[in-house]
Write a structure and sequence with these properties.
By secondary structure, the protein is of the alpha/beta class. It has two domains: 146 residues, Nucleotidyltransferase, domain 5 (2-Layer Sandwich); 167 residues, ATPase, nucleotide binding domain (Nucleotidyltransferase, domain 5, 2-Layer Sandwich). The chain contains eleven helices and twelve strands. The protein is globular, with a radius of gyration of 21 Å. Bound molecules: 5'-O-[(R)-(carboxyoxy)(hydroxy)phosphoryl]adenosine and zinc ion. Zinc ion binds next to helix 4. 5'-O-[(R)-(carboxyoxy)(hydroxy)phosphoryl]adenosine binds next to helix 5 and helix 6.
């Protein structure tokens, strides 16, 4: 700490962040939670595309191969040495256990060898904090819709590190539904970006797919019924010999997902009287969802925040941001930090 102009100035905090929870091997250096000095992502997507989805064992092996070069590049791109780093942050859950373990082991080894504190970070907290990177003025409290390949959560961010989950998916996550429907209509993996693109040529009102209601006034989501409705529609077309208009199916399915996400978010904003709303996770880069959420916020006088697509899908910069706020709250983990595949948001380990 140093004193300046009679005010106590905090020293800068440099976080080296590591993320390996699924199929991206990523490392970043983030200063004071919001300034990204480097953001290196090695995507394994091409490898998993061959199998139509993420193969956990292949993901773990690739992480082992890539983790050291990715971390070295993150430090080099940022132009810092390990001695300048304040703490090492790493995603410790949720995710694929073998994949998580690679990042957790690497982060522990580096932190131990360099004599730096270790901070375990929740992957979803990382997605939420991605919003701080480009929106310097954003501060809690705000409502956040987290929609990724593994999660669909409506979260009230009460304060840094204080989350209240208002709703979650009862079955498939939004991204999972995108991926499964994309596979069924022959678009391949990962389906989200492909459906996003193809939908632009389709009619979103061509097919009336169901908008699932879990229960009155619940903020929970359910996407497996919608996925089944799409599969049934495709089967019926096949049996009747009618051609499938892929773009129409994609656009109609996407509209059904977007409608539900917008409706739940709008209701929660109204019920809680919150005027700041953010979206996060891989599906948050969907252009139709962003446009619909923006329109809803404009109509209701709510400020809308979203990360750029590179900070929506898995990356380590978001872990560096979350790691900073956890570090500032005094969170430190021991050398016994483990990967926790089913870690709940807000759960202390
Ligand atoms: O956040 P993320 O990278 O990984 C998880 O934490 O799950 O999200 C990946 C998911 C995949 O299901 C992918 O299909 C989806 O995000 N996704 C999209 C788009 N880009 C990625 N879904 C819809 N539209 C997109 N443009
Ligand atoms: Zn993610």
């Amino acid at each position: 700490m140093e004193e300046k102009d009679g005010m106590r100035q905090q020293e800068d905090v440099w976080i080296l962040a590591v993320e390996t929870s699924c199929d991206e091997t990523a490392a970043a250096v983030v200063k004071n939670g919001r300034q990204v000095l480097s953001n290196v992502i090695y995507s394994q997507i091409d490898l998993h595309t061959l199998y139509g989805g993420v193969v956990p064992e292949i993901a773990s092996r690739k992480h082992i191969e890539k983790i050291n070069p990715v971390i070295e590049k993150a430090l080099a791109d940022a132009g810092v040495g390990l001695e300048q780093i304040t703490a090492v942050a790493v995603t410790c859950g949720p995710g694929l256990v073998g994949a998580l373990l690679v990042g957790v082991s690497a982060a522990k080894a580096i932190a131990f060898a360099a004599g730096k504190p270790l901070v375990g970070v929740h992957h979803i907290e990382g997605h939420i904090c991605a919003n701080y990177i480009e929106n310097k003025e954003l501060e809690p409290p705000f409502l956040c819709l987290v929609v990724s390949g593994g999660h669909s959560h409506l979260v009230m961010v009460r304060d840094y590190g204080t989350y209240e989950i208002l709703g979650r998916t009862r079955d498939d996550a939004a991204g999972e539904a995108f991926d499964k429907v994309a596979r069924a209509i022959g678009l391949g993996y990962p389906g989200g970006p492909k459906i996003d693109k193809v939908s632009c040529e389709g009619n979103p009102d061509a097919i009336a797919f169901p908008r699932a209601k879990v229960a009155d006034n619940s903020y929970d989501f359910s996407f497996s019924g919608l996925k089944s409705a799409v599969l049934n529609y495709l089967n019926a077309c096949r049996m009747k010999g009618t051609p499938v208009e892929r773009a129409d199916v994609a656009a109609s399915f996407q509209k059904a997902v977007v409608d539900v996400l917008v409706e739940h978010s709008k209701r929660a904003l109204e019920d809680l009287g919150v005027k700041k709303f953010a979206v996060a996770g891989g599906v948050a880069s969907n252009s139709h969802l962003r446009a619909a959420l923006q329109a809803m916020c404009d109509e209701t006088g709510v400020l809308f925040y979203h990360p750029s697509p590179v900070f929506c899908t898995d990356n380590a910069a978001m872990i560096g941001s979350a790691g900073y706020y956890e570090y500032c709250r005094g969170v430190r983990h021991g050398w016994d930090l483990n990967a926790v595949p089913g870690l709940k948001l807000g759960e202390r380990i």
